[in-house]
Amino acid sequence: MSVVVNRKGRRARLVQVALLALGAGLLPLGHLPALAQSSGLVLRIGYQKSASLLALQKSQGTLEKRLAPLGAAVQWVEFPAGPQLLEGLNVGSVDVGFVGEAPPIFAQAAGANFVYIGNDPAAPEAEAIVVPKDSAIRSVAELRGKKVALNKGSNVHYLLVKSLEKAGLKYTDVQPVFLPPADARAAFERGAVDAWVIWDPFLAAVEKQTGARILADGRGVVNNYAYYLAERGYAERHPQVIRALFEDTLDRGRWLKGNLKQAAALIAPLQGLDVSVVELSLQRYQFGVVPLTPAVAAEQQKIADAFAELKLIPRPIKIADAVLPWRVARAD
C-alpha cells in the first residue's frame, strides 16, 4: 500500500513541476501528454477534419494543457464523416465524438452505445443544397426526378427531407446518391449528379472554387445543431474530463469568433483549403457548447420520428434514452 501512495505522490509532484515549468516557459507542451499518460487516463476524441474548432484545438494543444492537471492525456482520432465516427464510438475506439444531427439517430437505431453530452448552437446556414453554376435548376421544386448526392446518415440527410417537403415534394421524388464528401464533389463536378447536399467547409469550398449556386440552406427549415457524444461509461466515470473539454471548447470558440482571419489562417492548412474558404465557413458556424437541454432533445426527437416514418431507420427510437440524467458541464 505504501508503494502505491508513494507513486501517486511522485506523480502529483511531477505534474506540479511540469505545470510550473510550463508557466515559466521551460517545458514545451509536447512533454505534457507523456506525463499525463502515467495516470492511465486518456480522452480519445473522434473528430472530422471539417470540424474547424476541434482542428484548431488539436493544432494548438490547448486541451492537452487543460487536461494535464487531471493526469489525463489526449488522443485525436480522425474520421471522414459522422457515421464512421459513430461506428468508432460504438466499437470503443474513441470516448467522445462531435457530429451533426443525423448520425447519432442512425447509430441509436442500430443499437450503438453512446450518450448525448452537449451541443453547439444552431447553424442553419452551414449546410445547403447546391447545383452547378450553369445548371438550369433554379429551385428545390425542380429537383423532382433528379440525382442528389449526399452522405447517408449525415446532418444533410434531414435538410434534404425537410427542404423537399417545404417545396411540396416527397423524399421519394428524387434519386438519392449516397457518397462521402470527396466522392460527391467529384461526381458533382463531372455532372454525374444534378445537385449536392453538403455542409461547411465543403460547402464553402465548392462555392468558392466552382461557383456552385445554393438552391437552399437550412434557414427556416432545419436547426443544424452539432452534438458532442460520449461512450456512456466514460461520461459517467470521468465528468471532470468532459467538463475540461467543454471549458477548452468554449474558450477556443470565443477566441475563434473574435479572431476570424487569424483562426482561418491557422485552420486552412489543416483542412487543405484556401484561407478565404475557411473564413467563409467559420462565419456560418456558431460555437458555444452547452449541456443538452430538454428543448434541444425534443428537436432531435422530431428528426428521429421523421426518419422512422420514412423507413430510413429500422425502428423508432427515443432520444431521451441516450441522454444522461445529469449535467457534466456548466452551461456558462
Automatic annotation (TrEMBL):
Q: What name does the UniProt record give this protein?
A: Sulfonate ABC transporter substrate-binding protein
Q: Which PANTHER family match?
A: ALIPHATIC SULFONATES-BINDING PROTEIN-RELATED
What's the family?
Belongs to the bacterial solute-binding protein SsuA/TauA family.
Q: Name one Pfam family in it.
A: NMT1_2
Query: CDD domains per the record?
Result: PBP2_SsuA
> Matching SMART domains, A to Z?
PBPb
The taxonomy runs: Bacteria, Pseudomonadati, Pseudomonadota, Betaproteobacteria, Burkholderiales
Coiled-coil intervals: none
The UniProt record lists the Solute-binding protein family 3/N-terminal domain at: 42-259
